[in-house]
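FAQ: What does a ligand-bound record look like?

Like this one, built around iron/sulfur cluster:
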Amino acid sequence: MNLDLRHSVCPHDCPSTCALEVERIDNRTIGRVRGAPDNNYTAGVICAKVARYAERVHHPERLMHPLIRVGEKGDGKFAQISWSEALDHVAQSFINKANKHGKETVWPYFFAGTMGIIQRDGIQRLRHVMGYSRQAANICTELVQNGWIGGAGGPMGPDPREMAESDLIIVWGGNPVSTQVNVMTHITKARKERGARLVVVDAYRSSTAEAADELVLVKPGTDGAVATAIMHVLFRDGFADIEYMKKHTDDWKSLRKHLINKTPKWAEEISGVPAEQIELLASQIGKTDKTYIRIGYGFARSRNGASQVHAVASIAAVGGKFQYLGGGAFWSNRIIFNWNKNIVEGNDALDSSTRILDMSRIGPILTYEDEIVRQGPPVTAMLIQNTNPAAVAPDTHRVLRGLKREDLFLCVHEQFMTETAKMADILLPATTFLEHDDLYQAAGQMHVQVHRAIIDPPGETRSNHWVLSQLAERLGAVHEGFDMTEWELVDRTLKDSGWPGAEELLERKWLDVQPSFDKAHFLEGFPTPNGKFKFSADWSALGPLGYKLPSLPDYCPNIDLATKNKPFRMITSPARNFLNSSFTETPTSKKREGRPEVLIHPKAAAKLGVVSGDRVRLGNEQGSVVLHATLFDGVQRDVIVVESVWPNAAFEEGIGINALISAEPGAPNGGAVFHDTAVWISKLD
Ligand code: SF4
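The answer part, i.e. the structure of the complex:
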């Protein structure tokens, strides 16, 4: 029997945005999902959690009908209502709240549960047309993006497929085996065909580190010191490419002077990485033209994260690596897509005086402790799409307290009964990517892709776009975008951005928009005001907290340092079978992850009298959580790891790991500091 294979695109919050082939069994059912073999980035490989997507899309616990709360907030007791009743209720609640407090009291809140441009970003149109509070969408990329912009300018860079042409690949602060599997496809090719060396710099022996030739095990928040010392060696030993720097960088002489005392020994004291290892890595980099540094997100999620990213990107500029095929540094291709999203986001209706609320600070905002919200009306109404702040946002205690407020009207549009959904007054059932049309870019690669629904929406599920258009009608929000179909929005956005229309792209399946070699390698100039890589970053131009970061690459101790009372530094790295809180509902992912655990170094555990399987309590001034210990020697002795994001309910006391994460903004312009936390540990009986 011939399989009915349909082209699709992974919508999940992952830089790979894989091209998919989905087996369609009938108009309600899918079979296997696999990577498109003819897409030269995806190259037929996808992660296991999406390969078993049938488990998620046909999950018996999918939300199927609009619901209204009938119990206490958070009890999860709801009654079924019709769509028109639900939408009328939401619209009337928004109108009532806005009449009482002003329009900024309504805060539409979203993130990247789907990365599709139409279904993710359409909520902006409702916000802009209605004058509701804006959102600083900074929970994921703000810190790493600002770090990159501080040196290289707009996010783009050498083609990630070029890793297959590299001789030395350094994965710095990322774990692609678990979170971006396609990166490994191109690395594996380089290793097999060229004998390339893979080095991982991370705070723990991740799955990627397990597969690498070498692991540089760093204390969280000290990567900047290691990068700075590597540059010290490059200058000291004649590996710095002076001719390249004269032509393509700014301020290299200041950098050279600044680095004189930043020796590997200095970095060892700070980072715990042996000076000999730093010397060796620096010398490998110095001798290898085709050195490709793949910058991850992990080490950026720290108060000093932007400065750390800047320091690492600077290595490639000092060594002149950007001029070689298979060389340079890469974080994201964000700017190559040239999007004009005006029709999707309704930017023509934006009033730039409307306040901006920091999504990573949803806890203090909802508890009225945030400075900006205190200067205006409280948030008393929300529509949440594509995110689950009750589990994923920092400062869980405040988030839950805020979401439970009786005076907060909460509408959540979701696929599952998440912990945020449970808090809703009105809960609306959402489609998955297989049941609606959308348009995708891939920040970690170079393809634009479109997607048409493959199966019918189950039950009464509806797309984000449909819900927004229905609400707009009831709220009197007038904009052309609300009168268009999803596919028309796809078509218009593509054409407004200078790309072929939707039908043509569907026919072609994807469009490779990777810039030319000279542009991508910045030989025509970096996307900075003067076309040069900036060793002296102007952080204050990027945000109000810029003064907290050093301009030149350095170690920046502006972090939650370990103390006598909180002797461990904690990172909360992504669990392989979850994607943030998505897939925490699928049986296989749950089974493979087991239970929330903390990885503790055996010597630290011995001092605490802890053995594998013991229950321990982790805590700091924000609260404490209980979970099980696993002894693990792939960390420094004073570092612990809790792979995430488990629901709060998976923890013994119903409160999850993000309770310990501060909502303090990272510098220079906010962003969640998920890997910048000092804690204490005590053994439980
Ligand atoms: S690797 Fe990322 S983009 Fe690819 S299928 Fe998995 S989650 Fe989706």
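Follow-up question: can I read anything off the structure? Yes, for example: Residues 157-331+529-548 form a domain with the Dimethylsulfoxide Reductase; domain 2 fold (CATH 3.40.228.10).
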